[in-house]
Prior knowledge:
Blueprint: E1 8-16, H1 23-31, E2 38-39, E3 53-55, H2 68-71, H3 76-92, E4 105-110, H4 116-128, H5 138-142, H6 146-155, E5 161-164, H7 170-183, E6 189-196, H8 200-207, E7 235-236, E8 238-246, H9 247-252, E9 259-268, H10 278-292, E10 299-303, H11 310-324, E11 329-331, H12 334-337, H13 344-358, E12 360-361, E13 385-386, E14 391-398, E15 402-409
Parallel strand pairs: 3-7, 4-5, 4-6, 10-11, 10-14
Antiparallel strand pairs: 1-8, 1-9, 2-3, 6-8, 9-15, 12-13, 14-15
Helix pairs in contact: 3-6, 7-13, 10-11
Amino acid sequence: MSKTIKRVVVTGMGGITALGDSWTQIESKLRANASGIAHMPEWDRFIGLNTRLGGPILDFKTPPHYTRKVTRTMGRVSLLATRATEFALEDAGLLNEPEIRTGAMGVAYGSCTGSTDAIRDFGAMIASGDVGGINATTYLRLMPHTTAANIGVHFGMKGRVIPACSACTSGSQSIGYAYESIKFGRVPMMVAGGAEELCPSEAAVFDTLYATSTLNDTPTATPRPFDRERDGLVIGEGASTLVLEEYEHARARGARIHAELIGFGSNSDGDHLTHPNIETMRIAMQLAIDDAGISPHQIGYINAHGTATEQGDIAETQATNQLFGKRVFLSSLKGHIGHTLGACGAIESLVTIQMMNSDWFAPTLNLKSVDERCGELDYIMNGGRSLNCEYVMNNNFAFGGVNTSLIFKRMN
Length: 412
């Protein structure tokens, strides 16, 4: 006998970005076409690193109740993730509810890696032959599932744990797998999202591929997604958490509902670790549409992955054009905050939901002249656009050939 399929809604959201840690702050800066990209002088010591650009969070501080005992297993990435989750639980009205500690709430969370200062400590041990620089918490700060594990322990959540470590789809896969956990009746509630801390090692990864922007003297002029003059991506940092909940459970407790999550698609390119594949990107979007039970023409807006790399931009927009034609509006947030890697799927989902509910969608910052090799789409250039959308989509694509697509529905 098949189980009843559950509806899944978003009842809480929290995020920390280079533009702020509340929707009021973020929206204000988006409307002002503000950039969170900055020159990183501390990276000047790295010989051969071409980029000196990042999207840092400049004023993040842990609150007083985050004691040493609480934070000793957390590097910066877990601190960002835990704080964003605290914001989301508070927004959902669940922060102090005993039910979240009964096994009724699980955690799905991801990042590209753990905290790299802990990785450095192990590297120093191997290089020097001296274990004096590591301690009992070093591994706990660097392990790939450090964000999911620390969130679960910090809030006492005893439900399922789904750690995603899939590069730039870590956050969106976490949301998708949390959605499926509720949809198929495994748990009534999940916190889901992604986080990343800014580190020069991540910039170096893309530097070796000649994929980073080197406009080091004009940081706010880059990155430039979809632009014919783009020169590469910029690494950012941040965290975002969504509280997902079974619809009837949310109604029974009188929760405010931000949106309904109705579709998730994910697949693998299956042919190359770093070269995007137009066909499988298109199929991932189609899978989400099929899961949602709607047609492509019902999607009013797409938040694109839009990294400002040549191969990525062209493949993504051509795939989108094939499925949607010229009908859909599309923009990328990476011109504003950079590529936040494991956090981007979650941050961009939060902002997409908020933009849908505000009837206003941010432009693709720094886009002046669309690369003619990109698909024929409306990229929302120069300034934001007032739109009334019932359905919105968020897409992310990652190293390893991982593709994800999420569809959110407006709750009237």
